[in-house]
Every structure is written in structure tokens, then in C-alpha cells.
Design goal:
Elements lengths: L3 E7 L2 H10 L3 E7 L19 E4 L2 H5 L2 H7 L4 E2 L3 H8 L1 H11 L6 E5 L3 H11 L3 E5 L8 E4 L2 H13 L9 E5 L6 E9 L3 E10 L2 E3 L3 E4 L4 E4 L7 H20 L5 E11 L2 E8 L6 H5 L7 H9 L13 E8 L16 H5 L4 E5 L2 E4 L2 E4 L3 E9 L2 H12 L26 H13 L1
Parallel strand pairs: 1-2, 1-3, 3-4
Antiparallel strand pairs: 5-8, 6-7, 6-8, 9-10, 9-14, 10-13, 11-12, 13-16, 14-15, 16-20, 17-20, 18-19
Helix pairs in contact: 4-5, 5-8, 6-7, 8-13
Length: about 425
């Protein structure tokens, strides 16, 4: 232990992953946490003291919690409200990346009084149709469909406020991109960024074979087989570095993680979106693979002085989300969870708790995504097998899970564009 104290803000599986990793070298308090996360307290973060504050979810970041803590002299890992607009407003994010020259899908934004214009633009795209809410929607504000009637109904529902309230009354209609989708993370200290040199792949839809509604994520794995290591350098060069430079030009001191979703198209990587925090469930397969003192690493980012990229273990990790019946529309709660201890007794398995409660001596379901059953092994196939072995030991009435998380074969190596590599070389020469 370093003798340091860290406060983690949040209550889900991502925050449990933070707690597990940071507790290697520090005393960790999680607020508000949940009954399955050690060190959970009900005290507000603004009433606590610590050497480092780590803000997990997007909502408090968009709401300015990092700014309020910094005004009190606290060291905070997480952007202020200005930088948090990268996730708080998809339109603003698209404007930033367009100004930075980052490759991304063509798009147009529409407000509630532009329904006719939005429908005309939608029809002109010819499908597949991609409609996004401008504001926060807990990972569920994106519709991708080939059905024009479904797309038109979604535009109506979002612009009217029926779908997501005020978050949806501005929408983005985007060009549909084709290719593998990957998640990438970089640590930004306000002036520069360093990569977490691994990639992850999330499974967003609720059902096997990517069917059903979008969710916050039903499982994830890392690394992604068949993707070249060179791609990390390319993603930094074409997206992360130009974005950090553009934020600086706008007077924004961004300190925290940049979570970039990319589509690997035949024309090279194209940015889908930025998030201002670690993904959930991506955090569960990325954070534990970071070697060394993660408290010191995040503290250096928060202090504006990150010096080098962290070392990442070569091990693979797979996490499978166990969800409540009815998720994501109307999850059932209050069911007793059986087998949790047996699953965690397996070597290489850790279960991160999300929507979990406690009644007497028993854990119960209290949300949509309940548990993240996470396994670590030498390769993705072995980690996947171990994760599903652990899942088989856990049960409650109506438990839902996908059975195809990380069911991948090594992909054809992704081509990198010569334009991007040239840009990287120029960036390195200027450093």
C-alpha cells in the first residue's frame, strides 16, 4: 500500500473494476457504490477527502462534479464540464472532430422544429439509417436499422421528446459505416495523450447474433485478435492527438480518459463517437490488464504530467453481462442471486457487481445489468471458456445473458492507411 486514499464515484461494474485495480496500492472508497463493491459509502464525493478522485460515470462529469472538486483543491481524474461535452452533446463532438480533421461519418443535426428537414435528409441517405440522440441516453440512444419506417418513427419519437426527453430533442443522422467496430482508450493530461495499448470489442445488442435493442453493453473482450499493433499508433495520429490539440485551441484542459469508438472501414479507421470515461463493460477487461501502480498513473494524468504510456498485460480478458429479465426495456428486480461465491472461487475469475442489492445475507437483483462475470487467461478463447463456466454457476429467476460474447476467430489483419501513418510520423517529428 502507498498509504494513499482514493475516492471512486459511481455505482456500477466499471466502478467495481476501478476499486479492484486501485486497491492494489491504495485505500479505496466508492460512492455511492453498491452492496457488492468493497468500501462503498453513502457519503457524497463532495463531502469526502482523498489524495485522488476518480469519476466513473458520464452524468456527474457532464454535471460539473470534476470542476467543483478541483475548485476545492482536489486532484481529479475526469474532465471538467467543458470537455465533458464530447459525450454530453454528440453534435458538439462532431463539430470538434470536424474542426480537428478527424475521419468520421458524414452527418447532419436537427432540432425539434426541423422534423420535415430531418425526415427528408433521412430518406435521402438511402439506408442503412443511423439516428443518435444528441444528449446522454445511458448507451441506448442510437438506432441502426435498414427499415425506413422504423427509422422515421425513431426520428419522430426522439425529436418529440417521447423517447429520451430533452436528451433526444436534438438528433444526429449519420452516414452508415461498414466494418469491425473497436474501442480504444487514451489518457489525456490537458496537453498530451498516451495510449492504453490494447483494443476491446463490446457487444451492444441484447440478443445473440446482435439482434434486439441496443443496451449499455452485454459483454466485452480484449485484446481483439487479428488487429495489428500498428493500429494503436494510427488511431493516436488520426484521432486522439488532433482532438486533444483542438480542445486546447478551444481553451479546454481535458484531464482523464478519452474513449474512442472506431469503425475499421476499407478506407481506414473512422471515428464513431467519443466518450469521456471508461466504457462499461470495457473497463472490466482493460483496467485489470494495466500493470504497475494505477493510482500513480491516474494521479499523473490528473496532475497534468503523464510521462509515458502504461504497460498492458498480454493476457486476455472476457466479461459476460448477466442481466435481469426484461432488460433493457423494463428489467425485473428483487430476485435472489445464487452461486456468486462458487463462480468467484474459480481461479482467474472475478465478478464485478453492477445492479445488485442486499436483503439480509443474500444478494438480490436491483437493476438491468446485474453482474459482469470476468475471466482472465492466456488467450481470448480460454478466457471466454472460463467466463462461461463461471456464468453456469450463477442463477436467479429470469436471468438473461448472451451466449456468443467473444465468439470470434482471428480476423484478417486490418489495413492501415498510408495517409495515417504519414500523419503519425509528422506528429512524432513535432514532439
Amino acid at each position: 500500500m502507498t498509504g494513499k486514499r482514493v475516492v471512486v464515484v459511481g455505482s456500477g461494474g466499471r466502478e467495481h473494476a476501478y476499486q479492484a485495480v486501485l486497491a492494489r496500492t491504495a485505500d479505496v472508497v466508492v460512492t455511492p457504490g453498491n452492496p457488492g463493491i468493497p468500501g462503498s459509502v453513502a457519503t457524497s464525493a463532495e463531502d469526502l477527502d482523498a489524495d485522488l478522485f476518480v469519476i466513473g460515470p458520464e452524468q456527474p462529469l457532464v454535471g460539473g462534479l470534476a470542476d467543483r472538486l478541483r475548485r476545492r483543491g482536489r486532484l481529479v481524474f475526469g474532465p471538467g464540464a467543458d470537455g465533458a461535452e464530447l459525450e454530453g452533446s454528440k453534435k458538439w463532438m462532431k463539430d470538434v472532430v470536424a474542426a480537428a480533421g478527424v475521419p468520421t461519418a458524414a452527418y447532419a443535426a436537427f432540432t425539434a422544429d426541423q422534423l420535415d428537414e430531418a425526415l427528408a435528409y433521412l430518406r435521402a441517405t438511402g439506408g442503412p439509417y443511423v439516428i443518435k440522440t444528441d444528449g446522454l441516453a445511458a448507451g441506448k440512444g442510437v438506432l441502426v436499422t435498414e427499415n425506413l419506417a422504423e427509422a422515421e418513427a425513431d426520428v419522430h419519437d426522439k425529436l418529440s421528446g417521447a423517447a429520451f426527453g430533452e436528451s433526444g430533442t436534438i438528433i444526429i443522422i449519420e452516414e452508415a459505416l461498414d466494418g469491425p467496430e473497436i474501442s480504444f482508450f487514451a489518457l489525456c493530461d490537458g496537453t498530451k495523450a498516451v495510449p492504453i495499448a490494447t483494443l476491446a470489442q463490446d457487444h451492444k445488442r441484447v440478443g445473440d447474433g446482435n439482434i434486439g435493442p441496443n443496451t449499455g453493453g452485454m459483454g466485452c473482450y480484449s485484446p481483439v485478435p487479428g488487429v495489428e499493433v500498428q493500429l494503436v499508433e494510427e488511431l493516436m495520429a488520426v484521432a486522439i492527438d488532433p482532438t486533444v490539440a483542438e480542445l486546447r485551441r478551444r481553451g479546454i484542459d481535458y484531464r482523464g480518459v478519452l474513449f474512442a469508438g472506431f469503425m475499421l472501414t476499407t478506407d481506414g479507421p473512422k471515428l464513431l463517437e467519443y466518450n469521456i470515461r471508461f466504457g462499461d463493460p470495457e473497463a472490466q477487461v482493460v483496467l485489470p490488464r494495466i500493470e504497475g501502480d494505477v493510482v500513480e498513473l491516474l494521479s499523473s494524468v490528473a496532475a497534468g504530467a503523464v510521462h509515458e504510456a502504461p504497460t498492458v498485460s498480454s493476457d486476455a480478458m472476457v466479461t459476460v453481462v448477466l442481466a435481469s429479465e426484461g432488460y433493457p426495456i423494463s428489467p425485473r428486480t428483487g430476485d435472489k442471486i445464487e452461486g456468486l461465491a462458487a463462480a468467484e472461487a474459480l481461479d482467474g475469475v472475478q465478478v464485478f457487481c453492477a445492479g445488485i442489492g442486499r436483503v439480509a445475507d443474500s444478494f438480490t437483483t436491483s437493476g438491468g445489468r446485474v453482474l459482469n462475470v470476468t475471466a482472465r487467461a492466456a488467450d481470448v478463447e480460454s478466457a471466454r471458456s472460463l467466463a462461461y463456466e463461471a456464468c453456469s454457476l450463477i442463477s436467479w429467476p429470469g436471468m438473461v445473458m448472451r451466449t456468443d460474447i467473444a465468439a470470434v476467430t482471428p480476423a484478417t489483419p486490418i489495413p492501415t492507411s498510408s495517409r495515417s501513418i504519414t500523419a503519425m510520423s509528422e506528429q512524432e517529428a513535432l514532439r
